[in-house]
Design a protein that fits this description.
single chain; 147 residues; mainly alpha; two-stranded antiparallel sheet; 7% strand; elongated
């Protein structure tokens, strides 16, 4: 009888670790989707706002970074700054441990104005729309497919 309880306890511990690992995998996927949506939906002129989507673990980043590929009049299709910001996010999110908070922030002083619709390249509320799409990925089950 004692052996049966010991086996049961061991199976429960294993199942608990599997659940924890699964939750961590889902949290990372949702964060990746949110980061991708935020970066790609950010209007671009010089690349500063797009480059400043920064991901951190445990506590927020408070500084502003220079654009990965600065320029003038880069436009919506600009990809170099997006690639840099997305890589930074992927690297950081991939390091997340279970229970660790993920922060996705943008510290440029004008991100609020951009989100309010000051650029013709993106509608007002693009930040909220990006987060809604990430949450929708959970509701639609997209984050549960594959790894």
């Amino acid at each position: 009888m004692a052996n049966g309880l010991g086996d049961f306890a061991r199976r429960i511990r294993i199942r608990g670790r599997q659940v924890e690992e699964g939750v961590n995998r889902i949290v990372r996927k949702v964060a990746l989707i949110a980061d991708r949506e935020l970066v790609l939906e950010t209007p671009v002129d010089t690349g500063r706002a797009r480059s400043n989507w920064q991901v951190s673990l445990g506590s927020p980043i408070t500084d502003e970074r220079e654009p990965y590929a600065p320029g003038e009049g880069l436009g919506r299709g600009e990809g170099a700054n997006a690639a840099g910001a997305l890589q930074q996010g992927q690297d950081r999110i991939g390091q997340r441990k279970s229970g660790q908070d993920i922060y996705i922030q943008n510290n440029v002083s004008y991100i609020g104005r951009l989100n309010d619709g000051s650029s013709a390249q993106a509608p007002a509320g693009f930040v909220q729309a990006a987060i809604t799409r990430a949450v929708g990925a959970v509701k639609n089950g997209r984050v549960f497919d594959g790894d």
